[in-house]
Amino acid sequence: MHIPDGFIPLWQCAIYWIIALIALGYSLKWARENLDEKNIPLLAVLSAGIFAIQAMNIPIPWGTSGHMVGAALIAIVFFSPWAAVLVLSIVLILQGLIFGDGGMTALGANIVNMGIIGGFIGFYAYKILKGIGRIPAIFIAAWASIFLAAIACAIEMSIAGTFPLVEGVIFMGLYHAVIGVIEGVITVVVILGIDSARPDLLPDWVSSRKSEVLE
Amino acid sequence: MEGLEQIDREAGKDSFMNSLDGRIKLISSMLIIIYAVYSTNLLILVIMEIYLLILISLSNVSPKYALKRIALILPFGGFIALIQPFFQPGNIIWTGPFGWLHITDYGLFFGALLLSRVTVSVTSIVFLSSSTSMQDLVASAQKLGVPHQLAMLLNLTVRYLFFFYDQLMNILNAQATRCFDIFNKKTTYKWRLRKVGETITMMFLRAFEQGETVYLSMMARGYSDNTRIYRSKVKLDIKDFAFIGITLTLIASLQLVKIFFL
Asked: Could you read off the pLDDT of B109-120 as tens digits, one per residue?
C-alpha cells in the first residue's frame, strides 16, 4: 500500500502533503493536550516498536506474506484517531527516508491512507460498533481500516492516471480484504493480550468495565 | 528492517560524500526526487540515474549492496509499471492470441517512465541513507526547520529502532530454538496467526513499557515539554556549496536541454 515516488503527479502530491501536514499538526496538538509532556518519549518509542511490528512477516493463506499496519490498534488503545495519525506518520517518514519504502513526494498520500483514513476508520468503526460487542467491533474496525485505506489508495492512483479505477478497486480491494481479516484477528489478539497483561493501558475498556460492574 | 544494521554500517564509512553536511545531501536528494517525478523524458531520467550512481560510488558504498537495495525496493513499483502497456490508451502495437490483451505505444512509454522515476527516486534515497547516518538525517531535518516536537519524536524513534530490531530478533531467535516456524504448514493457520498476535502483543507491551521508562528517565534528568535538543551550529564549507551547486546546475541544464533540444 506504500505508494512510491513518480506514481502521483506533483500537484496532487502537494494536496496530499497539505492534508497530511494539517493532520500531523492536529495530532501533535492532541498529544500535547492529552498526554502532557509524556507524549514525546512514549509515542516515539512506541513508533519504533510499531516499526518493528510492521517488519514482522505474517503468512497469508495462498503462500505469500504480508505485514500489520497497526493504525486501528493504536487508535483503539489510545482511544483517539490522532494517536494513530502521529505514530503512523513517524513510521512512514522514516520508512520513506531511510528504507525508500514509500516515496517522499507520495509521503503525504501514504500518511492520508494509512495514518488518517486507517486511524479514523479504525477508531470510529470501533466506537460506533462497540455496542455489538468489543471483540467483533475491534475486528471490524481493524479490517475496515485496512480495506478502506487500500480503496483510497486505488482511487488516488486512478486520479493520478497510473491505474484504472475499476481494476484498481477490485485488485486492491480483494487483496486487502484478506489482509484486513489478518489485521483484524491480530488486533483482537493484541488488545486481548494487553487487557490481560496491562489493562490500565486501555482506559476506554477499563472505564466501561467499571460502569458494567456498577450496574 | 532486516537491512537496518547494514544501512547504519554503510552510513558510518569514511568517504567524500559522508563528509558533506547532512542538510546539503537531504536538500539535494529531495530536489532530485522532485525533478524525477516532474520529468517526462526518459533520457533525462537515465542521466540522473547515472549521476546518482556516481555519487554512490563516491560514497564508498559497495556497488553490490547499493544495487541490491535498489532491486529490493523496486518490486511493487516495478509491477505497476510493467502492467501499464496493457491498459493505457494509445496506438495498439501488439494484440494477444485471443484478442483480449493489447499493448499500446503510450502504455509502453508510460510504463518505462514510471519505472525510471521510481528507480531514480529509490537510488536517491539509497544514496542519502548510505552516506548519512540516521541521527544526522534527523538533525539535518531539524536544522532545516522541522518543528522541535516532531524532530524530537523522530530522533527518539531512530534511536530506539535498533533496540526494537534487537528485541524482535531475540523473540524470533527464541521461537526458532523451539522449532517454531511461522510458515510451517504442519500446524494450523489459526494457531500460527494467534502466535503472531501474541508476539506482536509482546512487542507492543515492551515498546509501551520502554516508552514509559524512557519518559521517567528523561523526567529525572529534567525533561519537560519545553526541552529542546541541542544542535551545535555547523557552518557549510566550500565542498558543501560545490556539491549542491553541481546538483542544481545539472537539474537546470537538463531542464534547459529539454526545453530547447528535446
From this structure: 999 999 999 999
Whether residue B170 sits in one domain with residue B78: no
Tell me the HSE value of A106 on the side-chain side, using a 13 A CA sphere. 29
Q: Does a structural domain hold residue A1?
A: no
Percent of chain B exceeding pLDDT 90 equals: 29
CATH number at residue A16: 1.10.1760.20
Residue numbers of the domain that contains B99: 4-141+234-261
pLDDT of residue B109: 92
pLDDT of residue B142: 87
Contact B127, B29 (CB under 8 A): yes
Across the interface, of A31, A162, A190, the residue whose CB is closest to B197 is A190
Same domain flag for B151 and B135:
no
Residue carrying the nine cell digits 502466535: B195
Q: Tell me the chain A residues in contact with residue B149 when contact means C-beta distances shorter than 8 Å.
A: 28, 31-32, 40
Of B7, B33, B137, the CB nearest to A5: B33
Q: CB distance B156–A40 less than 8 Å?
A: yes
CA distance B162 to chain A (A): 8
Question: Between chains, do A186 and B196 touch, taking CB under 8 Å as contact?
Answer: yes
DSSP codes, B194-225 = HHHHHHHHHHHHHHHHHHHHHHHHHHHTT--T
C-alpha cell at A89: 506518520
Give tens-digit pLDDT for B181-223. 888 888 888 888 888 888 888 888 888 888 888 888 888 888 7
Q: Based on the fold, state whether residues B199 and B238 are members of the same structural domain.
A: no
**Whole-angstrom Cα distance, residue B4 to residue A98?**
9
Domain count, chain A: 1
Of B126, B137, B189, the CB nearest to A61: B189
Closest residue in chain B to residue A191, using alpha carbons only: B201
Domain-embedded: residue B229: no
